[in-house]
Design goal:
Cys/Met-Metab_PyrdxlP-dep_enz; pyridoxal phosphate; 387 residues; five-stranded mixed sheet; single chain; seven-stranded mixed sheet; 16 helices
């Protein structure tokens, strides 16, 4: 079964659909049963049986089945946000006294959550590479967490090598695959134990959804679904699940268009004299490009560039001159967006990730590439000599 079929048709020809082109949205908060015994049996398997919205729902379940199939995983669990999925996943794998290894730069709130866990006796260490992992691993280490490409820097990790290292040491590996989507990268096939996504980004695709998902084997998903998912209460709504399903229908086509525009814009910026570097794995000049080609089938359109400046006012001036790139957080929708960590990220988090002041993140949307390139060129010229 190929990805296009999964995105567009998997589960949508079943009897409960009643021939509807769009899957029904089950708005009810609970489901009733013929007997008390039936209810009792259903509650024992509330992660799979329809009992109460906080457990699961037919509309949410369809989205989960599609996402699991796309990632080549056994099961998926959708959450009300990406951080809901990340927090529940990490919590399900650690206890007081445990240690987490974080490889490379990761999403800022993920780091903040790991700091939050310190008051419960869970510690963590950030490392840059496997050599750092060798030095930082402890007897209490239980989890290896990473992204590839990494947050803001977009460094590429050799996923198979990293997961083999973790497996040999008895660690569970968790990877954030939001950047690539399952269309361009399938970490579970490379040895990752659990994959997380923010569904708010490319998978939703229209900046009208906040959601998250974790995908992996039943042995890890089932206890998480019965415990952290239920207790944290970060349940995805059926309306948001319907948006996920609609987003998936066009995901393969949108990702191809994002890649085309992203490559064009990144290529232009890589040659501009006011730009020190462009961190985009799709460019042959990127240090991780060869590795990316071995484990990815394409590239999204989120990347960063470093302006030739160490001045926050100069960075802000560049951003304010842009007309077609909207200023805002998040990414993955139709609209092109710009953001600068030095202007918006907690200083300690930025320092941990080694992000320079001149770093600017671009999310290239689906507008014409020529229009976006002209916008960037004018803004770079309008700032003048960067100081």
């Amino acid at each position: 079964m190929d990805d296009e079929w999964i995105c567009g048709r998997l589960g949508e020809d079943e009897p409960w659909m009643l021939g509807a082109v769009n899957p029904p949205v089950f708005e009810n908060s609970l489901f009733t049963f013929e007997t008390a015994g039936e209810l009792g049996e259903a509650i024992k398997n509330e992660d799979e049986r329809y009992v109460y919205w906080r457990g699961t729902n037919p509309t949410v379940d369809l989205a989960q089945r599609k996402l699991a199939a796309l990632e080549r995983g056994e099961r998926a669990k959708c959450f009300a946000s990406g951080m809901g999925a990340i927090a529940a996943t990490i919590s399900s794998l650690v206890k007081a006294g445990d240690h987490v290894l974080v490889l490379g730069a990761v999403y800022g709130p993920t780091t903040q959550f790991l700091r939050y866990l310190e008051k419960f006796g869970v510690t963590h260490t950030h490392v840059d590479d496997l050599e750092g992992c060798d030095s930082a691993i402890r007897a209490s280490t239980r989890l290896l967490y990473f992204e590839s490409p990494s947050y803001m820097a977009y460094a590429v990790v050799d996923i198979a090598e990293v997961t083999a290292w973790a497996r040999e040491r008895g660690l569970v590996s968790v990877m954030d695959n939001t950047w690539s989507t399952p269309i361009f990268q399938k970490p579970l096939t490379l040895g990752v134990d659990l994959v997380v996504h923010s569904l708010s980004k490319y998978i939703g695709g229209h900046s009208d959804l906040v959601g998250g998902v974790v995908v992996g084997p039943s042995r890890l998903i089932r206890p998480l679904a019965l415990t952290e998912y239920q207790l944290y209460g970060a349940a995805m709504s059926p309306h948001d699940a319907a948006k996920v399903i609609k987003g998936l229908r066009t995901l393969p086509v949108r990702m191809a268009a994002h890649q085309e525009r992203g490559l064009a814009v990144a290529g232009f910026l890589a040659e501009h004299p006011a730009v020190r570097t462009v961190n985009y794995p799709g460019l042959p000049s990127h240090p991780g490009h060869a590795q990316a080609l071995r484990q990815m089938s394409g590239f999204s359109s989120l990347f960063s560039l470093e302006l030739d400046t160490d001045s926050r006012p100069a960075v802000a001036a560049f951003i304010d001159l842009l007309r077609y790139f909207r200023i805002g957080v998040s990414w993955g929708g139709f609209e092109s967006l710009v953001n600068a960590p030095a202007l918006s990220t907690e200083e300690s988090v930025r320092a941990t990730m080694g992000i320079p002041v001149g770093l600017v993140r671009l999310s290239v949307g689906l507008e014409p590439a020529d229009t976006l390139i002209k916008d960037l060129g004018l803004a770079l010229e309008g700032v003048g000599p960067l100081a």
